[in-house]
Amino acid sequence: MRYFLILAVIMAAMTSPSFAAGSYDPPPNADDRLKKAIKHIDRERYDRAISELRKAAKLRPNNADIQNYLGFAYRKSGKLEESGRHYTKALELDPNHKGALEYQGELFLMTGKPEKAQANLARLVALCPDGCTERTDLEAAIAAAQ
Fold it and tell me: % helix / strand / coil in the chain, to the nearest 5?
């Protein structure tokens, strides 16, 4: 009888709801949410990307990449003021974030501030003296805006 009682207790402990349902999937972390958001951005589903990025930002509020992607998704959604706030935050966290410098420069062009776009380009020239994609893209955007 005693063995039966011990066996019953062990079996009860092993059949917790998460164990009985199969495998336990931990909640998504910030990296998972960022990857998901980038997929949404690639498919131009900016509202879905923003939703994932906001959740990621709650998990990692001081991540410049997440802030940069939030700025990008908001800009592509036409929410330019919100976009600007996130680019500013990204650059506060990482003043040399090339992506944020490029995208903020493009935002400056959209909002009639070409001199600020030029300032971002100057920073990219200093960061990428031999060239980089961000510098080339912002140069092209500035040339197209003129």
Answer: 75, 0, 25
Residue 67 lies in a domain: yes
Q: How would residue 2 be classed by pLDDT, with cut points 50, 70 and 90?
A: low
Tens digits of residue pLDDT in 3-21: 444 544 455 444 444 444 5
**CA-CA distance, 126 to 87, in Å (whole number)?**
19
Taking only the tens place, the pLDDT of each residue in 109-118 is 999 999 999 9
Distance CA 19, CA 126 (A): 55
The CATH number linked to 90 is 1.25.40.10
The Cα 86–Cα 68 span in angstroms is 6
pLDDT at 1 (0 to 100): 55
Does residue 91 lie within any of the structural domains?
Answer: yes
**Structural domain of residue 99, as residue ranges?**
30-145
User: What is the number of structural domains in the chain?
Assistant: 1
